[in-house]
Specification:
This protein is α/β, with parallel strands linked by helices. The protein has eleven helices and eleven strands. The protein is elongated, with a radius of gyration of 41 Å.
Amino acid sequence: MKTRFVLINTSHAGNVGATARAMKVMGFGDLVLVAPRWANVLNREETIQRASGALDVLKNARIVATLDEALDGMTHLCATAMTPRDFGPPTKAPRAHFAELLGQTDLLSKEELLAPAATGLKPDSVAFLFGSERFGMQNDDVYRCHVALSIPTDPKFGSLNLAAAVQLIAYDWREALGGFSVQPATAEAKLADAAEVAGMLKHWEAALTDIGFLDPASPKKLMPRLNQLFNRAQLSPEEIHILRGVAKAMSQKAAVPQRRAAPSKVSPLGGQGSTGTDERGGSISTGKTAKPADTPDGK
């Protein structure tokens, strides 16, 4: 559906650039500025910087003197106004209004379904109007619109930056029109086939036996349970290689004889000590022995 974003009396060049960026990421490109503060706003450095690559939107944007010129050819007009008014078009949340506008009744609440619709015909074009950063939209501009869109915010603080409001409206409108699919950030994972899983399980069965965890004479249901576990994990070929590496390391560790600490030696006379070798290779004792008692003859 033809869609146009209209900025009225915009005072900050950066907001124009940020609006172009917000539009482009949602696939919209029709931008019209009504009497902006700067006549050369589309070429100002701040505008270009904030556009962050959306230069085609700025290049195709138009600057006009009146709102009538900006709305030429548009059939459904949506104001964006949060200030309460005692008169004017109905105030609606963007998503609810878009669902109603496009006949998406499955997305409407019971209250919205019972509310009288303004028209049963779908428009062929939609324009979203945004007022100046400081004052918003003038009443006369709001009155000519079919609806006043109000973005649901915290009741205690509803102040939105102009470009942020454009981004939210553009996102909700794009989603109502069908949206974009999510682009995967990584390649789709390839799953290991049954033969690779079976081979890895054989490897693990041998490794678990080597470390004494699995008794081949009484395996019970250990391996079938591991098979189910790995099936749920949906392993990739690379993960199969990792698990095989773990099994190999277990078997290698089990094959290395474990060294036991040598027991301490006790001297025949009860002294605790250790032995070593002298320079000639003979044994020497470093233990303490009890002093023998004197013999009866004094020797």
